[in-house]
Amino acid sequence: MLYQAYQVQSDLMTPFRLMAQWASAALWFKGTEGHAVRRLAAASEVLSRLRLTHSRPPYDIGQVTSDGQSWPVTESVVQATPFGSLVRFKKEGAPAQPPVLLVAPLSGHFATLLRETARTLLQDHEVYITDWHNARDVALCHGEFGLDDYIDRLTDFATTIATLTGQRSHWVAVCQPCVAALAATALMAEDDHAAQPASLTLMAGPVDCRVNPTEVNKLANSKPIDWFEKNLVSTVPLPHAGFMRRVYPGFLQLTAFISMNPERHQQSFRDLYRHLVDGELDKANTIRTFYDEYLAVNDLPAEFYLQTVEKVFQTYDLPRGVLQYRGRTVNLKAIRRTALLTVEGERDDICSVGQTVAAQDLCTGIRPYLKQHHVQTGVGHYGVFSGRRWNHQIYPRVRETIHASIG
């Protein structure tokens, strides 16, 4: 009933939001900064933006500058599956560059959350991204999607990239999928798969949540897995294509994130109102852009969500050496031909320092000169893969790892 109640509330509020959107546009006049009419227009826009959306925003990576030259970027789907697609960003006319698979989280937001990460990587690479679909739009006839299926897709996508480019790809996994990416790499290595990654960069990922547990980790351990299934999993209502599919609704995930720091988000919307009233449109657009992305939510398949909570955050299967994949035990010692870079943020309150670097000790088959670790001072979780320090301090380390692993 939880999802149905949300859907009813959303449907009832839609006319009021549309009226607010119309009022904001109708009352927007130049030269009215600070006046009552501008305050009313600004308030109407803020009200119209207090909503969730459920479709992936556009990536909008039309061009990228590399070595002082601007290149047009084309976006295409090179492999489509019911639960996710492999999207390629290619610089038209540019010489061949190392292929990078950007492994995006399936955690309540769309892969476009990594738009800036992809844009930066495009400077020196051809970039592919795991573009996960909204589970509420996937019909029941396509079956379930669990952690094993996520690992399968990574293997399939890497094979597709190798076929298209003739090269082993370099994986950059951000946050939640670090566990799946590490497991997939180990399985491919054990099978001597031709497309196993040449390098693997794990950024702010929960490889071993026993280390320096955060509030997120403690929350995941505060209840048994049956409680999560009973209270947080719901079925998709009509009229969505995934009607009756069991999901962890994206609006619940977003609510959890916002509740960690509600004052910050309240202040952001107050700032948006003030910038609109004062005519500071550049500052207003920055807030608009952030929340257009942040409030776009993606429902997770229930199987994937519950397995992730249990195996990653409760029983720590991967670092304990007991993670199972379709009846096989994942053996991280099998990884030998893949360079490993781990990256952490000093102020990360979602995935704390120590949880990602744990991969270094677990991957005993990788020779020491192929391992690197970087702790970025002064950044939280999102600063690891976006913002000034990502662009100028973290990315050069990632690029160096990738280019040193070519061959």
Written description of the protein model:
With 407 residues, the chain is α/β, with parallel strands linked by helices. It contains 14 helices and 14 strands. It has helices at 2-26, 36-48, 115-121, 147-165, 178-190, 215-220, 225-232, 250-260, 262-278, 281-294, 302-314, 317-320, 358-362, 388-404; strands at residues 63-66, 69-81, 84-91, 99-103, 126-132, 170-174, 199-203, 234-235, 246-248, 300-301, 324-325, 328-329, 339-345, 371-376. The strands form three sheets. It has a nine-stranded mixed beta sheet, with helices on both faces. A three-stranded antiparallel beta sheet has the order 8-9-10. The protein is globular and about 65 Å long. The mean pLDDT is 94.
What fraction of the residues are assigned to beta strands by DSSP?
15-25%
The residue ranges in which pLDDT falls below 50 over 5 or more consecutive positions are: none
Report the C-alpha radius of gyration, rounded. 22 Å
**What count of domains describes the coordinates?**
2
Q: State the separation between the terminal residues, measured CA to CA.
A: 54 Å
For this entry, what is the oligomeric state of its chains? single chain
Characteristic terms for this protein:
Rossmann fold, three-stranded antiparallel beta sheet, 14 strands, 2 domains, nine-stranded mixed beta sheet
Give a quick summary of the entry.
With 407 residues, this protein is α/β, with parallel strands linked by helices. It has 14 helices and 14 strands.
